[in-house]
Amino acid sequence: MKKWICLLLAATLGLTSICSGQKNKKSLLWEISGNGLKESSYLLGTFHLLCEKDFELKPKVVSTLSKIKKFVTEIDYTDPKEMQAMAAAPKAEKTLTSQLSPDEATHLNEVLKSYGTTLAEMDTFNTQSLYSLLAKKAITCPATEVKMYEVELLRLALATGKKTGGLEKIAYQMDALAKSYDLKEAIRQLSAGDLYEKLTQKMIRAFKNEDLPELDKLLKDKRLMNDSQEYWMLTDRNQNWASDMPAMMQTESILFAVGAGHLMGEKGLIELLRAKGYTVKPVFQ
Question: Which of 25, 59, 120, 273 is deepest in the core (most CB within 10 A)?
Answer without folding.
Answer: 273
